[in-house]
Design goal:
CATH class of the domain at 293-442: Mainly Alpha
Largest sheet: 3 strands, antiparallel
Strand order of the largest sheet: 5-6-9
Structural class: mainly alpha
CATH architecture of the domain at 293-442: Orthogonal Bundle
Distance between the termini: 78 Å
Helix content: 40-55%
CATH topology of the domain at 293-442: Arc Repressor Mutant, subunit A
Number of strands: 13
Radius of gyration: 30 Å
């Protein structure tokens, strides 16, 4: 059995940042690659900032990404494994013992009501698995607080105590924590424990080249949940923020990532977040899904948008989803493109009406209405033949009928292929919409 034990230790103060999601993913990948253990630990000692809602959002994000943990709290707050609990707010007795030990050894002292750790005045070398050997001159380092005046323990103490107590073998975290590592090594030594190996992953930068913050667009994982992104696409993209297969291929399965993930292959340079690339990747994943795979996602997106999917036969919804998915990149776009199939009233885009439902367009619709009323076959190929035949009879281009027909039946200038659209809507609804468009504009 592998002795690798890694952890994801977020502080639930609002939402799951994409940087935190990537940290969780890299820890999960390393645990799964080495057949080790992935521990979830909630660092909730800051009672003023931590909320139950933030914890719920955190669980929801990890579950959506498919990052299951081996030890730690379950989403309902109960404990998985036999080493819980994994909420730091419930581990105060463990931190109190560590504080007493440091005070008894004169490696910590009280100062103005707080407790400070005596930082050793020497050079400390961090043997980082990604950054390499990094030296820190701590000869002028100040002693630092490990317990506040109000009695609450500080991040540095609880982080180290928990890593030792839980037998964490590797700490994989953002490079912004590298400067904290000398303190954590010193604390581990003072407590008589063996510190984990450290691996600091590169920062994620925004478009302007600075560290991606909570204020940046696209920084919250919830944006992708709500925007109709696929978890496998987001997961794939997060992998690329610091790691790759080292071949000319960016789309790969999570199984491939697990098989080939190595800490030594994580890039040293910072990663720039590219929202356009993620959008492209999501579209690629969406188009590749089979009918059985995409329908559950589509139903969830539609339900969230206020369309109770039980109103329509599964076969009808599947036809609609398979038609529009070829043209969209997100579930949010899929819902927009599906609206004409799910609503009886057509929502006309003013620009589309102005451009295509002018007098020439209305004349074309009248000719089309007369022709389609007599159509015995409403299959896409039969409809295409009738459009071309009608254009030939009137000595005009087939576009003369295609664009007004699209606007009359969907309200839009652009959309999925017209002939399958008309087939799915059905003859009765198509004729009704053609009449309504003619009457609406004529009046």
């Amino acid at each position: 059995m592998s002795s690798i034990r890694v952890r994801f230790a977020p502080s639930p103060t609002g939402y799951l940042h994409v940087g935190g999601a990537r940290t969780a993913l890299f820890n999960w990948l390393y645990a799964r690659h080495t057949k080790g253990t992935f521990v979830l630990r909630i660092e909730d000692t800051d009672r003023a900032r931590n909320t139950p809602e933030a914890v719920r959002v955190l669980f929801e994000g990890l579950q959506w990404l498919g990052l299951d943990w081996d030890e730690g709290p379950l989403p309902d707050g109960s404990v998985r494994g036999d080493r819980g609990p994994y909420f730091q707010s419930e581990r105060s007795a463990i931190y109190d013992r560590a504080l007493r030990l440091l005070l008894d050894r004169n490696q910590a002292y009280e100062s103005d009501g707080a407790i400070r750790f005596r930082m050793p005045r020497k050079k400390i070398v961090v043997e980082d698995l990604i950054c390499g050997e990094v030296g820190f001159d701590c000869t002028l380092e100040q002693d630092f607080v490990i317990q506040r005046k109000d009695g609450s323990p500080v991040f540095h103490l609880v982080n180290v105590v928990d890593d030792l107590d839980m037998g964490i073998s590797h700490v994989i975290r953002g490079e912004d924590h590298l400067s904290n590592t000398p303190k954590h090594l010193a604390l581990a030594a003072a407590l008589g424990g063996t510190a984990p190996r450290y691996a600091h992953i590169p920062l994620i930068l925004n478009r302007s080249g600075s560290k991606m913050s909570k204020r940046d667009l696209g920084a919250s994982l919830s944006e992708y949940l709500d925007g109709g992104y696929l978890p496998q696409a987001v997961r794939n993209y997060l992998c690329l923020l610091g790691w790759s297969l080292r071949e000319n291929r960016e789309l790969f399965s999570i199984e491939e990532a697990v098989e080939r993930f190595e800490l030594g292959q994580i890039h040293r340079s910072n990663a720039r977040f590219d929202a356009d690339k993620l959008l492209w990747m999501n579209g690629s994943y969406l188009r590749s899904l089979s009918p059985q795979e995409i329908l559950p996602h589509a139903e969830r997106w539609l339900e969230s948008a206020g369309y109770p999917t039980g109103k329509w036969a599964p076969g009808y919804l599947q036809e609609v989803v398979l038609l529009v998915k070829e043209k969209v990149k997100t579930g949010k776009e899929l819902v927009e493109w599906a609206r004409p199939f799910l609503e009886e009233e057509v929502r006309f885009q003013p620009s589309a009406v102005k451009r295509f439902l002018n007098p020439d367009g209305i004349r074309a619709l009248r000719e089309l209405l007369a022709d389609l009323s007599a159509a015995p076959d409403f299959a896409p190929s039969a409809l295409e033949a009738r459009f071309h035949s009608l254009a030939q009879v009137h000595g005009t281009s087939v576009r003369t009928y295609v664009h007004p027909a699209r606007v009359a039946t969907t309200g839009r200038e652009v959309g999925p292929s017209l002939y399958p659209t008309l087939t799915i809507l059905g003859k009765d609804r198509v004729l009704q919409r053609l009449r309504r468009a003619i009457e609406t504009v004529a009046s």
